[in-house]
């Protein structure tokens, strides 16, 4: 067994998938966003579990991620959300990927590659309705469609856009984006361009903007058990999927006046029992939680004292007399009745749960647990 490891609760993942379906109803398809190694949770095992649970589509950022899914036997349609590179066109066709398309040169390359293979390229046309990142600006839609009209081997399977503020309480801007999106869809209809899926909803919209659901939603963070922000009160109960655990390496008494760790940022004001544990910022635990974070030992919250270093953290376990070397410590997750959430860590580190999951999920020791808590 490793000195620290990440546990992935596949039963919780399935539960969260069912909650997405509950929120959107049975007539709306779900695209499970598994990019960035499923937000650190492990793309292949996560995608396999979600495929079993009934995910209709998968979403990745880059073509190579989609190829990994295909090699792992995932047959569902895969949308490549950041789009393709020029050299990816033959691969896109060969593996039946759905790139987000927002560039005419990519459209032309796909058309050529599809014609060459005797197939049709299925694309998801990305529109910029206000995020200002990727996408054809809605005001430039007509000239883009004019140019696309001659490409006979390209089929628009989906049209989509991304909401910038779906995770905020104030929905004014989301509604503006949705109005622009609807206007653009109408212009496609007016040109008799047919498509199967219009999609704009991320987790924030799944949870909080029912009118954004449409035929397909793209759910990411809620699958992993977190609401997209603290401004969103989830109408469904989500279960956290990831836990970060480690062991106590050493326990010792340190006299009053002694300092702990780099920079001597913590000085004991009383005789203190210090437990040193085998996690550090190399494991994705934020250094910003030096003297701020907490861990669970014997089901009790204990403070991190001193700096979080690369591979070690020091805890004050004075009030947990039973704490001993080799005892399990939880930095993210549940022990007994106590729980430390990614939101809690993120808030203290001035970031978002997404970043915490991605960083901690890089841990090479990942254990996938089934519904009985055993290794999957
Ligand atoms: C285009 C797109 N759609 C959907 C999502 C999923 O968002 P969330 O994790 O907030 O559900 C993302 C995530 O970044 C995205 O980039």
TrEMBL record:
Pathway: Amino-acid biosynthesis; D-alanine biosynthesis; D-alanine from L-alanine: step 1/1. GO terms for biological process: D-alanine biosynthetic process. GO terms for cellular component: cytosol. GO terms for molecular function: alanine racemase activity; pyridoxal phosphate binding. The modification N6-(pyridoxal phosphate)lysine is found at residue 35. The keyword Lyase does not apply. It comes from the Bacteria. It catalyses: L-alanine = D-alanine. SUPFAM superfamilies: Alanine racemase C-terminal domain-like, PLP-binding barrel. Substrate binds at residues 133, 310. Its EC number is 5.1.1.1. The active site is at 35 (proton acceptor), 262 (proton acceptor). CDD domains: PLPDE_III_AR. It is an enzyme of class 5 (isomerase). Its cofactor is pyridoxal 5'-phosphate. It holds the Pfam family Ala_racemase_C. Keywords: Isomerase, Pyridoxal phosphate. Residues 241-369 form the Alanine racemase C-terminal domain. InterPro entries: Ala_racemase (IPR000821), Ala_racemase/Decarboxylase_C (IPR009006), Ala_racemase_C (IPR011079), Ala_racemase_N (IPR001608), Ala_racemase_pyridoxalP-BS (IPR020622), PLP-binding_barrel (IPR029066). The keyword DNA-binding does not apply. PANTHER family: ALANINE RACEMASE, ALANINE RACEMASE, CATABOLIC-RELATED. Belongs to the alanine racemase family. Catalyzes the interconversion of L-alanine and D-alanine. May also act on other amino acids. This is Alanine racemase. It comes from Desulfosoma caldarium.
